[in-house]
TrEMBL record:
This is Peptidyl-prolyl cis-trans isomerase. The keyword Isomerase applies. InterPro entries: Cyclophilin-like_dom_sf, Cyclophilin-type_PPIase_dom, E_coli_cyclophilin_A-like. It comes from the Bacteria. Residues 1-19 form the signal peptide. Residues 18-175 form the PPIase cyclophilin-type domain. It catalyses: [protein]-peptidylproline (omega=180) = [protein]-peptidylproline (omega=0). One of its GO terms (molecular function) is peptidyl-prolyl cis-trans isomerase activity. The lineage of its organism: Bacteria, Pseudomonadati, Pseudomonadota, Gammaproteobacteria, Alteromonadales. Its EC number is 5.2.1.8. It is an enzyme of class 5 (isomerase). The keyword Magnesium does not apply. PPIases accelerate the folding of proteins. It catalyzes the cis-trans isomerization of proline imidic peptide bonds in oligopeptides.
Amino acid sequence: MKKLLLGSVLAAASFTSTATIVEMNTSQGVIEINLFDQQTPKTVENFLSYVQDDSYNETVIHRSVSNFVIQGGGFTFSDSLDAITTKPTVTNEPVFSNVKGTIAMAKLSGDANSATSQWFFNITDNSAALDTQNGGFTVFGQITAASQSTLDKIAALVHCGETPVVDITAEQCSSNDVTISSANLVTIQSVTVMDDDPNSSAGLTVTANTLIDADTSTDSGSSSGGGLIWLLGAFLLALPRLKRAK
């Protein structure tokens, strides 16, 4: 009976959630995120562990794809590009749908339980692909309406490859003589817990992932969505001709 009741709840198009609230201060504006503590507890605990030890401070947005995602949580940039130290992988929790305005964990293609530090914002409704690919991508939070303008601002920047840049033109991106500094990248200056009460947003309405159980495909996620996590080498390829400023 309990199992049947749970299935009925998850089959609903949307339902209320509870959330810790975090504020992500970026060089392009503030993003406020409601985290789904009770429905995706392992993922939220993992994300907050990086927040609590300041691992996300001074990291950069290394990937932005038009009408798809904005991705970060993996790299810092000072005199060189460096991957942050990651912790053990977290178990996949594909409870919610990858609709516009949600934040989800990035992971390795073909491994549903490979997420560590990297995450991405869905800047459009990606549910048709990402709710089922690679075991489904775990949505663990939702931005506030006021935060959408910051994501729109990042998405509208010039991109060198898939990396959004500031004060660099598209023509300069293809030049061998352009230098780059941290000021040219979208930087996450800090991520702060604003309200640690898991019931702080009891009226928040979110969309359930109703596709994951219905998916019968054997595709492990070889498309662009399935390989959302970028390793350091791939990040370097995103800025193929930019010289680091000394």
